[in-house]
Each structure stands twice: as structure tokens, then as C-alpha cells.
Amino acid sequence: MRVGVLTGGGDCPGLNAVIRAVVRKGEMHYGDELIGFVDGWRGVIEGDTMPLDAEKCAGILALGGTILGTSRTNPYKVEGGAQKCLATLASKGVDALVAIGGDDTLGVASKLSAEGVAVVGVPKTIDNDLSATEVTFGFHTAVQIATEAIDRLLTTSESHGRVIVCEVMGRHAGWIATYAGIAGGATDVLIPEEPFDVEEVCRNVKSRRSRGRTGCVVVVAEGATPKQGSFSVVSGEVDQFGHVRLGGIANQLAEEIEKRTGFETRATVLGHIQRGGTPTAFDRVLATRFGIAAIDAVHDGGAGMMVALQADRVVRAPLSAGVGEPKLVAHQFYEEVAKPFFG
Ligand code: F6P
């Protein structure tokens, strides 16, 4: 078979490990010819491809980013985009497509599948907010990076007796903030699922300081919102999937904490550091398992499905199950495992 592969949306550690697994099993086990589409759906719309074989994938297992490039191009927001995708796939003789991406990329895959394209999805995002799978690869690496950052922020915060507000990614879901906050012993963790009260955050900060603990790190997800009022953390830019650019809540919260508590407060925005660099061993293995399962799905009737992790088994779910409603941090988990350590 001739199988196309693409990576779309924000990059994430482990993408290359998926590509490598798809290519290796595709070539060696099924005798497939692989073809890479450059920059996600843009490559499919414009017919921009690159050769993809085992040689090309040598040494990429531990490499961050994606050798295929990525973009947030949405064929359904480009004039005649979907038709162009169908035309490219026909002209390149592509029998099936493996689409590696998050909600947006898999949403497009799902629509193209309804138009007759044989496509298999692989769920990725550091945000871990995709339904149908318990974990996405990239999340474990992002949590590791954020936890290490919190550990480092804590020591400098201790030395100076400052509060540090650490902003992590998480547009709709606070998975990174919650896991890294628990792992790093944060004084408070603010996530989109649980609107926060600035006074309560300040109470937690003061309570920690009153116990003689000079170091204090508050973790905030970029999409967290206060119960009262709002922080303006949105830039004017909107991508083709309708997402505004977030960022900046840490700075505003830090100002507010300093004003209300009198403690010197600083902000650190981790930003794309969380998405870059080498994947953890866990993510390398998960990405490899997903890649193998995806090429198997291409060959045994799994078109229109995505691979997913459930109860530590790689299973298949309809593409439509993975998109739409994000998977959020459960209130009970936040209350029972994160909150007892605040303050
Ligand atoms: O891929 C998800 C994500 O990392 C979000 O957490 C974040 O809001 C967004 O991407 C940032 O996107 P960009 O890299 O396009 O600024």
C-alpha cells in the first residue's frame, strides 16, 4: 500500500517516535511505501510531500519536534481545501493516511473520512485533553519539564523569600498544571476547570509563609479564569481553528498577589519549553505503541478510527469519539489529590 503520514497542530515530544514506528512496521512487515506530507494539512492541500523510509527515520526516536513539520492549517477554512486534499491523495496514489494530531487535526481527519478517505488517527497533545484516550503522548514529557521547573523555581523563591507564579500550558484543561503542581508541591494550582478566587490564593500563600516556609510557587494554567472579574490574557490573533492566543495570566496574577499580600512576587511563563526537546522514555514507548497500532489499523479495517490507550491497552475508537468535548481534570481528583496540599 502507499500510506501517507502527517503531523498537524502544535508539535509535541514523541511525534518522531510515532513516525518511525509507522514507517518501520509499514515497510518491513507490510511492504508499504510511505510518503510524508509536509506541515500537516497544508502539505496535503498543496501536494507538498517528502520521501519517508526507514533510512530517513534513523536516529529520530529521541528527537523532539517532527521531521515532517507541522502547521495549524484547516482545509475546511481554505477555499476548496477539502477538494484539494482529495485531489492530492488521488494524484499521489495514496491508499491510506495516518494523521497524527490533536482535536483539530483529528477533527479534519474525521470529516475527510466521511468523504471517503481511508484515514487512521493518532492522538497527540501535551495538554492531554483528548477524549477517548486516557493519555496522549507528549503529556508525560511536559509534566516532567514543568515539574523540574517548579523544583528550580522553589529554590530561588526560597532564597529570596519571594512568591513565584509559574504559568504552564493548558487552554481548556489543567492536566499539566495539576500533575506538575502535585509533583512539585505547589502552594496552589489554578486550572480552567476550577475558576479561582484570588483572595483564596493569597490566603494559601500567607498560610505557607506563616509556617516559616519562605519558598512558594503557585502554578497557573494559561486558560485558568478567576471567579470574579477577568484577567486580560488573550491576544487578538485567532488561528484557522478559531483558537485565540493565550498567555500572560501569571504576570497579572503575580501583580495581584503582591498587591494583596505585600510579598514580593515574580512570574515565570514556561511556554514552548514544555513542547520542545526529547520525549521521556514513557512517551517514546507510548508513541511507538501508537505508531505500530496505527499502521496495523491501516491494514486490517481500522480506517475511520483512532488509536487510543485504555486500561494500559492500545485500542481503537472512532475518530469522532476523540474530538469535540475535551477531556477535563475531574473535580473529585482535584479536590482529593491536589487541594489538600495547597497553602
Ligand atoms: O498544542 C497545544 C498547545 O500547546 C496549548 O497548550 C497552547 O495553548 C497552544 O498549543 C499554543 O499554540 P502555539 O504554539 O500555536 O502558540
Give a quick summary of the entry:
The chain is α/β, with parallel strands linked by helices and 343 residues long.
Mind sketching the topology for me?
Elements: E1 2-7, H1 15-28, E2 33-37, H2 41-46, E3 49-52, H3 81-91, E4 96-101, H4 103-114, E5 119-123, H5 139-160, E6 163-168, H6 175-184, E7 188-190, H7 198-210, E8 216-221, E9 234-238, E10 244-246, H8 249-261, E11 265-269, H9 281-299, E12 305-310, E13 313-318, H10 319-322, H11 331-338
Helix pairs in contact: 1-9, 5-6, 7-8
The structure holds 6-O-phosphono-beta-D-fructofuranose.
6-O-phosphono-beta-D-fructofuranose is lined by residues 9-10, 125-127, 169-171, 222, 245-246, 275.
Helix content: 25-40%
Write down the CATH topology of the largest domain: Rossmann fold
Q: How many domains?
A: 2
Radius of gyration: 21 Å
Beta-strand share of residues: 15-25%
Q: Averaged pLDDT, please?
A: 96
Q: Spans of 5+ residues with little confidence (pLDDT < 50)? A: none
Q: Report the count of strand segments.
A: 13
Shape: elongated
Major beta sheet summary: 5 strands, mixed
| N to C succession of SSEs | EHEHEHEHEHEHEHEEEHEHEEHH
CA-CA gap between termini? 58 Å
Largest beta sheet: strand ordering: 3-2-1-4-5
CATH class of the largest domain: Alpha Beta
| Second-tier CATH architecture of the largest domain | 3-Layer(aba) Sandwich
Number of helices: 11
Class computed from helices, strands and strand pairing? alpha/beta
Bound molecules: 6-O-phosphono-beta-D-fructofuranose
